[in-house]
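Bug #77: duplicate submission created two jobs. Keeping one. Sequence:
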Amino acid sequence: MAFISNRCQNSTTGMSKQRIFSGVAPSGNIHIGNYLGAIKNWVKLQDECDSIFCVVDMHAITLPRDPEELRKKTIEVAKIYLASGIDLEKSTLFIQSHIPEHAELSWILNTIARTGEMSRMTQFKDKAELHSGNSSTMESVPLGIFNYPVLMAADILLYDTQVVPVGKDQLQHIEITRTLANRFNKRFGNTFIVPEPYITKEGANIMGLDDPTKKMSKSAKSDYNYIALNDSEEDVRRKIKKAVTDSGSEIVYRDDKPALMNLINIYSLLSDKPAKEIEKQYKGKGYAEFKTDLAEVIIKFMNPFQEKMNDLSDEKVLEILREGAEKVRPIAKNKLDEVKKKIGFVL
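Kept job's structure:
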């Protein structure tokens, strides 16, 4: 399977566009890791692909959420999509819970998914341990944490998705999606397209500023782990100044310097400069100068981004999301009807 791709042209016809689907949950603080690892790719791919992007609010409730905060975050995530450059002439945006077929297909896929597959999910283990405080005691862990990869599979398969732009941490979930699609097709006949993941090399690993061995996380306990997309200039400078660096003083892009590699990746992806060019630019210079410049690169990206977000009214964004749901509803219904017919439901 090709995990890194550079186009969305349909390999069977050579002409028609492939469909991509992806989404972000409206929980925690959406950060530059989410942008660089996923959303930035969406913006690039929408020129080549039939693009569907979703605010996956059903995924957000796998852990308890304040209802008002969930509503606020749902609109905020949609604003992030639009401010990032998602073009409504090329892409469709909607809210997951506005299309009930997601939940219905998820239940059907639950009947062919296996508990062993779900229990081996790395993110399940991490989230269960975080929730319970003890990985050996799972009685209090919500079931949604356990089987949300099945809902993710339903999200993808419902739209005949061919390409899924994701971060590296989601590859395991794409593999489960592929497994479920193949299993269903084998049992009931060819129904689902088996999707491929799309990952860029640099964006695959945006790690925590406070710990380069773990990914940047929306739910991190310390806000020094990430740069939130709504952080102020002062926040950005403060967090980058405190970001972990490796031993030594050279600005080098090497595997044995994971903290520096992470910071250089962020610099590279936001400035469109190759990592080796950045390494050459800072030859003979120290961490302090590099970090100061990195903070300014981030701020240069953040300022116009935040202005675009602030220009979007909640009412306008909600109108866009509802129109998007109307656009994708026939696709979802047709696929679910096909699935129901295959498994023997009376339509």
